[in-house]
Amino acid sequence: MIKTCTFFCAFTLLIGASIARSADRPNVLMIAIDDLNDWVEPLGGHPDVQTPHMKKLAQRGLTFTNAHCQAPLCNPSRTSLMTGRRPTSTGVYGLSPWIRTVPELKNLVTMPQYFQKAGYRTLIGGKIYHGGNGRRKNSQAECDVWGPNAQVGAKPDKKIIPPTPGGNHPLMDWGTFDHRDEDKGDWKVASWAVDEIGKMSDEKPFFLSVGFFLPHVPCYATQKWFDLYPNETLTMPPIVKGDRDDTPESSWYIHWDLPEPRQSWLEANDQSKPLVRAYLASISFVDSQVGRVIDALEASPYADNTIVVLWSDHGYHLGEKLISGKNTLWTHSTRVPLIFAGPGIPSSKKCNQPAELLDLYPTLSELVGLAAPDDGEGLSLLPQINAPTTPRDRPAICTHNAGNHSVCDTRWRYIVYADGAEELYDRDADPNELQNLVAPGKNRDAFEETIANLKKWLPKNEAPLAPGSAHRILEKRDDGFYWQEKKIDPAAAVK
Ligand SMILES: [Ca+2]
Ligand SMILES: [Ca+2]
Asked: Any idea which UniProt keywords this protein has (predicted)?
């Protein structure tokens, strides 16, 4: 492998101590988890949750406790992370399109491609891109090795929960039934990663991306994971009746008509606790699969020269704000686990500075001694990795369809919708974001300066919908809001 003096010197400075293959760049193990909110031990989002492997990873690394997705939905979030560009720059706001089908985006260099060009062997298994994206046409252009795609694996004969509104979507289910952990899709993805780690050669450094599907619905797990969360002692999240009384009507439009049931349906069907329990059980199961992969890494020759990063693509509501699911601009949807560990990364540290998932691209690049791509929109987190109290000016911005954004700094969350309606939360005093400080009738003037400071970070230009945009698309047109091309009738809101 060719190494330049520039790289070698920078890298030596960066990590100090020698590593197993000191002449080479570090490897990268990137673990992605789907729809995982802050209910993990390193973030403390749920008092009952048991995630020993993520806890252990956090103990040997750095956890960003104020990290947020760029879009609260799979495809736009993952597109942003993997390309280093905001949804407002690509126009990818929905579950479609895949970037390679869009003339203006098809040549974007994704993170694995960037590392591949720098001499890395790149592998992708499980859910890294949404759905089958990247695997269909010209799949070899995306990475060197494709592993198994994400799949549910074992399923019950029929849905466990009662038929859900909006067409009884087959994925909208949760509970336990007779099956084995080994029969689950995520088990197979972890097994693939374990095998690949065992087969790595020293010829090239590797960039191994491993994407887990749970706790995405259907939240199926075997009984032993449910046993960790007995019904009698289960802690329910803060579900506050009337919490939406101070949020604008347009806050309903961004998750207007979805398969994920409202809290009202969960309560009417006695599914509130079963969903929380199944989600927690699924998290603990997926944590065990994270453990299998990290254990394999630690038993390998690459234990000491591999950067591990773990993230989720967005959060998930379990009744908070009176809904289940994603597609909102509140903390339940935007806050994500983001943990780094490995050479050059301090252990047992937390950083509360705002971080964005699109920062991964420049951060991982710099962590291995590559220059960050000069056309990306992320900011390297290296200053915070080197000194976790280093302040960061830029807040974290999350977008759900054009015109709807939230801006989060170390204290505040400001939300603006496409019709100009606003929310402001003091997350120090109100971490669950219950009190909208700028609801009608409140004294907005008192927060004018705070809002102005946050608002200045909003994207200045917003790309129109990329060709082929579909699924969970909201548009503000001259005569009102449209959800999936159909005009929204505010009176028809299902709350
Ligand atoms: Ca997702
Ligand atoms: Ca409220």
From this structure: Calcium, Hydrolase, Metal-binding, Signal
User: Which residue among the candidates 68, 69, 74, 408 is catalytic per the annotation?
Assistant: 74
H-helix segments, 86-143: 87-90, 111-117
Q: Measure 336 CA to ligand 2 centroid, in angstroms.
A: 22
- Alpha-carbon distance of 2 to 119, in angstroms, equals 9
Q: Whole-angstrom Cα distance, residue 129 to residue 76?
A: 10
d(CA 338, CA 67) in angstroms, rounded, equals: 6
Residue 398 annotated in active site? no
Any catalytic annotation for residue 130?
Answer: yes
DSSP at 262: B
pLDDT at 24: 78
What is the CATH code for 26-492?
3.40.720.10
CB burial of residue 490 (10 Å; 0-12, 13-18, 19+): exposed
- Catalytic residue among 46, 53, 68, 130, which? 130
Ligand in closest contact with the CA of 217 = 1
Q: What is the domain partition of the chain in residue ranges?
A: 26-492
414: three-class secondary structure by DSSP: strand
* Apex 260 CA angle, 256 and 265, nearest 5: 95
How confident is the model over 353-364, as pLDDT tens digits?
999 999 999 999
